[in-house]
């Protein structure tokens, strides 16, 4: 991008800054649960959130394959190392990678074709915490998954602190869709998740009913226990 050479330095820097943040997004991550949640974001890191606390992160324009999730029953030492019962990310408070299932996910890719963000809630990695993923202003759809899935979880999928997706348990193409597009279809287990959270992915190829768009430049909130 070219700027006029006779602009004052401060004006030039302001223009560059405004350009750099075009279509960046802010995320307000809020814990409304009655228990502590250790929020995690990739990119973003991690933060302990007691009931009522909020963590704000800024995500660069063009970020893809990003996600936010919550971790439960964590213990970390002064150096930020420890372990969580659900959603653990390599034993780090400040996550650098993805979390260990089960964990309910808010997923997004910013500034995609046609100036759109792609957003979704996913139970493909199972479920641990009810979640809302919504725009700060009313420009696109509010997504929510707050059913009592942990309490109603099928016996085969039960695990401490959450409900596994069947791919995690059985590791077959029927549930994981590892053989490529069109290689799998809904199952009894995926229908369990879909019936309770119609907005959320229930298996990897559940795109038609689970992937949504918002205008690029939208700011978002992620709420645990909405």
TrEMBL record:
<dbReference type="InterPro" id="IPR037176">
    <property type="entry name" value="Osmotin/thaumatin-like_sf"/>
</dbReference>
<feature type="disulfide bond">
    <location>
        <begin position="145"/>
        <end position="197"/>
    </location>
</feature>
<feature type="disulfide bond">
    <location>
        <begin position="33"/>
        <end position="225"/>
    </location>
</feature>
<feature type="disulfide bond">
    <location>
        <begin position="74"/>
        <end position="84"/>
    </location>
</feature>
<dbReference type="InterPro" id="IPR001938">
    <property type="entry name" value="Thaumatin"/>
</dbReference>
<feature type="disulfide bond">
    <location>
        <begin position="89"/>
        <end position="95"/>
    </location>
</feature>
<keyword id="KW-1015">Disulfide bond</keyword>
<dbReference type="InterPro" id="IPR017949">
    <property type="entry name" value="Thaumatin_CS"/>
</dbReference>
<protein>
    <submittedName>
        <fullName>Osmotin-like protein OSM34</fullName>
    </submittedName>
</protein>
<dbReference type="Pfam" id="PF00314">
    <property type="entry name" value="Thaumatin"/>
</dbReference>
<feature type="signal peptide">
    <location>
        <begin position="1"/>
        <end position="24"/>
    </location>
</feature>
<feature type="disulfide bond">
    <location>
        <begin position="167"/>
        <end position="176"/>
    </location>
</feature>
<keyword id="KW-0732">Signal</keyword>
<feature type="disulfide bond">
    <location>
        <begin position="177"/>
        <end position="184"/>
    </location>
</feature>
<feature type="disulfide bond">
    <location>
        <begin position="140"/>
        <end position="214"/>
    </location>
</feature>
<comment type="similarity">
    <text>Belongs to the thaumatin family.</text>
</comment>
<feature type="disulfide bond">
    <location>
        <begin position="153"/>
        <end position="163"/>
    </location>
</feature>
């Amino acid at each position: 991008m070219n700027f006029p050479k006779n602009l004052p330095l401060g004006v030039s820097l302001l223009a560059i800054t405004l350009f750099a943040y075009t279509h960046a997004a802010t995320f307000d991550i809020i814990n409304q649960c009655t228990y502590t949640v250790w929020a995690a974001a990739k990119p973003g890191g991690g933060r302990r959130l007691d009931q009522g606390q909020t963590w704000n992160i800024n995500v660069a324009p063009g970020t893809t394959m990003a996600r936010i999730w919550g971790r439960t029953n964590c213990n970390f030492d002064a150096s930020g190392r420890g372990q969580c019962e659900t959603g653990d990310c390599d034993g780090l408070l400040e996550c650098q990678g993805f979390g260990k299932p089960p964990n309910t996910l808010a997923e997004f890719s910013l500034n995609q074709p046609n100036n759109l963000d792609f957003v979704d809630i996913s139970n493909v990695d199972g479920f641990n915490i009810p979640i809302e993923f919504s725009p700060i202003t009313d420009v696109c759809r509010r997504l929510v998954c707050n059913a009592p899935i942990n309490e109603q979880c099928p016996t085969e999928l039960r695990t401490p602190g959450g409900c596994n997706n069947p791919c995690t348990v059985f590791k077959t193409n029927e549930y994981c869709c590892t053989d490529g597009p069109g290689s799998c279809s809904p199952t009894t287990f995926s229908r369990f998740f879909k019936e309770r959270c119609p907005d959320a992915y229930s298996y990897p190829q559940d795109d038609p009913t689970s992937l949504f768009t918002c205008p690029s430049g939208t700011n978002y909130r992620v709420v645990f226990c909405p």
